[in-house]
Each structure stands twice: as structure tokens, then as C-alpha cells.
Amino acid sequence: MSENQLTTNNNNEEINLDVIDNKIYVSSLEIARVFEKRHDNIIKSIESLPNDSFRLLNFEVSEEVRKNGIFEKPTKYYNLTRDGFSLLVMSFTGSKAYFWKTAFIDAFNKMESQLKTPKIPENYIQALELALTQAKTINALEYKIQNDKPLVTFAKTVTDASNAISIGEFAKLLFDENIKIGQNRLFKYLRENKYLLMNNQPYQEYLEKGYFKLIESTYETSYGQRIATKTLITGKGQIYFTEKLKRDF
Predict the structure, then answer these.
(1) What pLDDT is recorded for position 95?
(2) Percent helix, strand, coil in the chain (nearest 5)?
(3) In the prediction, which pLDDT does 13 show?
(4) pLDDT at 229
(5) Strand ranges (E), 28-104
(6) pLDDT at 2
């Protein structure tokens, strides 16, 4: 029995679970085999589910080549997570279906326990492989920490700021982040991408999201007192637009 297979207590019948990227799946082919159902009907049941985020996360389409006599034919199937499996077999009824539902759940639990328990190397080669895996993980983490330092520093700066800043001040801050856009081009970018109206005031949507803040001030003219409105970018907005501008420029 391979590492990705578990055996239930029903006449030593095997339940095959797959570990992919440290996540546990059961294939629709395996479900059809164990529950004695036609695989095409299992596929239909999956594909009749709403095409939403739950299905995207818990039903991963895949393909394998199977031999049919002397011919080879690609076969579509799905890899299901524990949640995907539970939803799919919810409608399966009967004492035998009940037994296999609980057997699969037990198999998922056992496999999850195995993944959480560090495997002790049994020989020199396995010890080297473990050391190499750990070294790669450490190097990846160190690279991420170094790569994220500028953004972390910038985020702390804007988060610690007690007040929002003007568009012009933000353009100067972007220059320090090596985004050389300038105040006028920044205003134009924000208008063209429907963040600001033609009068340089933000759309209500982005005010409500907390990206902008409006302040009002009064000034005297020969016609009396007037009110001026100024658009400021909040700390949240500065982080959002910095990341967006890094992608766009």
C-alpha cells in the first residue's frame, strides 16, 4: 500500500486518497468505484453544482490517460477535498452508503493526522532529503522577508500617519518608491480610471471604501465667504494605489 492509500476495516477494502501540495483529495473515480456508481453520473452531479467559489476551491478538474484495449483515451475526473466529498455524497442513501461515508471520513482523519506528524527519516538518503526540503523552506522565507521589507516599511509609514495626505504629497511618496508619475499624471490616472471625478473629487464608492477623505475650508472673496473642498488620500488608499501603480507602471 502506498503512502497515499488507507485501508478501511471492510474486508481490507482500500480507500485511496491523494496528497497534492500537502492537501488531501479523493478522486471522483475513487468515489464511483467505492460507491458502485457510474463515473459519468458522478461528473454530472459535480458539474450541476453552482459554479461558485466553493466549487472552485473544493472540486479540482483533472485528467488521466486510460487504456481501452489497444487504445489510450484521456479521462476527465475531479479531485475533491473533504468538504467537496461531504457535499457530493450527502444525497447517497442506504446502509452501505452510510458505511462508506463514515469510512471515507475516517480515512481523511487518519491522513490528516499522518500529515501533521513529522516523518522521521529511516535512512541517510531520507535524512538528506528532509534537510534539503527544510533548507529550501528557510531560503524561501528569508527571500520573502527581504522582498517584502520595502512594502512593510511603506505600510508602517502610512499606517502610522495621523492624517491623510494630498495627491501632490502622495506623488512625492511614490517617487521614493521608484514610481515616477508626478502630481499631474497622478491626477490624470485617477480620473481616467474612475477613482476621481472631473473636479478631482472621489467617486462615492471609493470614499466609502476609505481610500479618500474630503476636507473643507473657507476663504474670503469680494463676493463673500466661499468653501473649498480638497481631496486627500488616506493611509489605506496609499497602500492600495501604491500596489496598483507598481503593476500599471
Answers:
(1) 82
(2) 55, 25, 25
(3) 65
(4) 86
(5) 59-68, 71-80
(6) 44
Q: Is 122 exposed, middle or buried (0-12, 13-18, 19+ CB in 10 A)?
A: exposed
Do 23 and 81 contact (CB within 8 A), yes or no?
Answer: yes
Residues of the chain with pLDDT under 70: 1-13, 67-70, 118-119, 121-131, 144-145, 147-163, 219
Please, what is the angle between helix 28-35 and helix 95-116, to 10°?
140
Query: In whole angstroms, what is the distance from residue 29 CA to residue 79 CA?
Result: 9
Question: CA 112, CA 116: separation in Å to the nearest integer?
Answer: 6
The predicted model scores a pTM of 0.46
Nearest residue to 173 via CA among 230, 246, 229: 246
C-alpha cell at 26: 479523493
Report which residue type is found at 147. N
Rounded Cα distance between 55 and 110, Å, is 24
Beta bridge partners of 218: 227
234: nearest Cα among 142, 172, 163: 163
Q: How far apart are CA 86 and CA 105, in angstroms?
A: 8
Give CA–CA dist 164/111, Å, rounded.
51
